[in-house]
């Protein structure tokens, strides 16, 4: 039976993740039962859960290799964080059609990122829908080697801040619009040239801001470090689709081994674990997603999400060999997810831990 301690839990599970640094999505044992935090996740939609099992499988496959890479580099903090992600949502406590677990909230966890992504979309979509003529902008610099990635990410942050400051002054003098938008920092790896492409994706309210940003970006970097052809701006046709495109959360996990040979999906994609570790490490000091020039309505505080005492509950444990959570008492599987042979093959055979 589910018995709230006090107050009622928020209806939205997604809110739990928005409250970073709080005890949301956690649990501990008491003699009378199990105390869980957050509203838990609804078990009703099997498909949602099968997708989650898939992401859990991908994350674990990737993380074990990231751990190997980080251990080799003696990056102990990162090894710890990777293990934390490996164990993310490993155990659930189920009661009354909901399950409660512990979330790592790390940016390299595809399970947590997906939930966070949904949360960002929920919160930003209503605001962006009010913008007159949203534009999607991509700002890039030249591809760089792993050893220089830190420096370039710092440069990107600085350049963007300087552009904002300049536009703010212009706006105060009545010489330009207020700079408003959302932006995300992303970096992909090119396995052929062994380089990294740090870049910004933005959605801004109109073509004028899109143009100002692109022009200022080019002025800042000059042709030596970027080119006009590598910057893009276009009208947003579907806000939701472009929001999904914008919030990739850092980097793609699967990479085509040769970007020049687009073979219509015939060449199996690869996971370049060493390159991903380089990206995660270099991006650590930076926010991946940010808004600028506007605020959102206030979120409810985490104190509204009361702890709940579960007196009767099922335990579900993720079993990597089954790609699913199972109930050790009954042997029952939670989702029934079955990975395709291709996915199994990629995770078993297509993870490269050297190239970077
Ligand atoms: Zn996680």
Explain what this protein looks like in three dimensions.
By secondary structure, this protein is of the alpha+beta class. It has 2 domains: 2-117 and 301-352, no CATH class; 124-292. The chain is built from 9 helices and 16 strands. The strands form 4 sheets. A 5-stranded antiparallel β-sheet has the order 4-6-5-14-15. β8 and β9 (195-204) form a beta hairpin. α2 (46-72) runs antiparallel to α3 and α2 packs across α8. The chain binds zinc ion. The site of zinc ion has 8 residues, from α4.
Outline the low-pLDDT stretches: 1-24
Largest sheet report: 5 strands, antiparallel
The gyration radius over C-alpha positions equals 22 Å
Report the structural category.
alpha+beta
**Helix content range:** 25-40%
Instruction: Describe the global form.
Output: globular
Strand element count: 16
Order of helices and strands: EHEEEHHEEHEHEEHEHEHEEEEHE
Number of domains: 2
Strand content: 15-25%
Bound molecules: zinc ion
Helical stretch count?
9
Measure the end-to-end span.
52 Å
Oligomer kind:
single chain
Overall pLDDT score = 86
Order of strands across the main sheet:
4-6-5-14-15
């Amino acid at each position: 039976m589910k018995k709230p301690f006090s107050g009622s839990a928020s209806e939205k599970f997604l809110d739990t993740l928005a409250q970073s640094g709080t005890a949301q999505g956690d649990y501990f044992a008491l003699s009378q039962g199990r105390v869980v935090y957050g509203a838990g996740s609804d078990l009703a939609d099997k498909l949602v859960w099968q997708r989650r099992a898939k992401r859990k499988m991908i994350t674990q496959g990737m993380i074990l290799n990231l751990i190997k890479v980080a251990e080799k580099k003696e990056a102990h903090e990162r090894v710890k964080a990777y293990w934390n992600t490996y164990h993310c949502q490993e155990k659930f406590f189920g009661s009354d059609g909901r399950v409660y677990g512990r979330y790592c909230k790390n940016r390299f966890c595809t399970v947590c990122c997906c939930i966070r992504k949904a949360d960002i979309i929920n919160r930003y979509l209503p605001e962006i829908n009010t913008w007159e003529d949203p534009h999607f902008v991509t700002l890039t610099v030249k591809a760089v080697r792993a050893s220089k990635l830190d420096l370039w990410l710092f440069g990107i942050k600085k350049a963007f801040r300087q552009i904002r400051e300049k536009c703010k002054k212009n706006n105060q003098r009545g010489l330009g619009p207020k700079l408003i938008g959302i932006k995300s920092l992303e970096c992909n790896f090119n396995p052929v040239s062994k380089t990294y492409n740090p870049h910004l994706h933005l959605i801004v309210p109109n073509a004028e801001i899109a143009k100002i940003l692109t022009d200022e970006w080019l002025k800042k970097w000059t042709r030596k470090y970027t080119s006009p052809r590598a910057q893009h701006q276009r009208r947003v046709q579907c806000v939701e689709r472009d929001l999904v495109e914008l919030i990739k959360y850092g980097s793609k996990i699967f990479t085509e081994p040769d970007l020049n040979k687009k073979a219509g999906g015939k060449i199996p994609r690869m996971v370049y674990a060493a390159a991903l570790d380089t990206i995660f490490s270099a991006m650590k000091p930076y926010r991946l997603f940010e808004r600028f020039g506007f605020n959102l309505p206030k979120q409810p505080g985490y104190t509204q999400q009361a702890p709940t005492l579960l007196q009767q509950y099922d335990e579900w444990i993720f079993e990597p060999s089954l790609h699913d959570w199972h109930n050790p008492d009954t042997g029952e599987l939670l989702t029934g997810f079955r990975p395709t042979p291709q996915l199994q093959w990629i995770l078993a055979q297509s993870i490269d831990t050297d190239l970077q």
